[in-house]
Description:
Blueprint: H1 2-22, E1 59-60, H2 65-70, E2 75-76, E3 80-85, H3 91-106, E4 114-119, H4 120-126, H5 131-138, E5 145-150, H6 153-164, E6 171-177, H7 185-198, E7 202-207, E8 218-225, E9 231-232, E10 235-236, E11 245-252, E12 260-266, E13 271-274, H8 278-289, H9 320-329, H10 333-340
Parallel strand pairs: 3-7, 3-8, 4-5, 4-6, 6-7
Antiparallel strand pairs: 1-2, 8-11, 9-10, 11-12, 12-13
Amino acid sequence: MAMTAVARETVFALRRQIAKIEGTLPERLQAPAGAPLADAGSDLTIVRRGLAAALPDAFLPIGIERLDAALSGGLPKAALTEIHGLETRDAGAVAGFALSIVSLILSQAQGLPILWIGTSEIFHEAGFPYARGLHASFGIEPQQLLFSETPRLVDALWIAEEAARMTALAAVILEIRGNPQRLDLTATRRLHARAQGAGRPVFLLRQAAEPEPTAAPVRLIVASAPAVPRETVAGPLAGSIGHPAFTISIGKSRTALPGQFTLEWNPDERRFDERRGEERSRASNEWAENPVPVVSLSRDRKDPAAASGEILAFPAAGSSAAISSTARDQPSPGQRAAHLGPRRAG
C-alpha cells in the first residue's frame, strides 16, 4: 500500500511538471477531496486544463458525440492542435482529415480563406490537394485554400507565426515531415500563443513523425481505415468502395482521456459518421478477404517476374562475345536522343 501511494504521488508530480512545461497548468490535479491518496477509489483521474473551462462556442464540434465528449466539446478554436501521421503512407489520410476539419470551419466562417504552409520537402513527398477534389469532396472552393511553399523550415515557421495572428484567415495549417529539431517546445508555444491571441485555430500536421512534447492541448493520431461497400436501397453494393474512413486516436487531450474511433467522411452531407459494431467488423472482414498489395504487378503481366538465376561467368574483356554484347546493348541512332535526354520528375 505504501508503494502504491508513493507511485501515485510520483505520477501526479510528473503530470504537474509536464503541465507547467507545456504552459497548460491544470485546474485540478489531485486525488478527490477527503480520500487518502492510496484509497482514492479508482485510477481514473480527470485532468481539467485552461481551455476545459471555456465557453461552449470556444470549441469546434467534430459531430461525433463520443469523440467530442472525450475532447471536452471538440477541437479548440483558438489554440494549436496537432494532427499526426506515424508513417509516410498515412500522408493522404492526415491531409484528408485536415481538409474535413477545414470544411467544418468554413461552414461557420463564410468568406475567410485557409492558409496551408509547408516546406518543399513535404509538398514534393505528399503532393498538393487536387482542386476539383476539394470542391467535390469537401465543398471547398479553390480560392478559399491558399498555399505557401518555403525551401526551409525556419521560413515556414516564420510565416505560420505571422499568419496565426491574422484575423483575416479562418485557420492556419502548418505541414511538416518528421521531428525536426527546430520545431521544439518554444516554437509550438509561440504558435499556440498567437492562435489564442487571434482567436483562430492553428493545425500542425506532422507527417511520418513521432509524438513529442509540445504546447498543443490536443493531439490526434490519424491513419487510414478500410472502406466499406457503398450503401444502396437494396443494401451494400458488393465490390464497391464507400466513403473515406479514418482511424482517429487521441494521443493527448485536455481531459487526459485516451480513445480510438473509426470515422467516415460523408462528402455529400459534409459531416462525419462513426463506424461502430457490425460495420467495423464487416470492414475488417472485407479487408481480410480482399487484401490490396502494397506494390501492384508489372503492366500486362498476370504473375510477378521469375526469380533471377545464378550468374555463372562473364565474357573476358576484349573477346568477341563481350564486343557483340556491348554493341547489342547500345541504343540505335534513332533512339540515342531520347536515351540521352533528361528524365521527367514524378
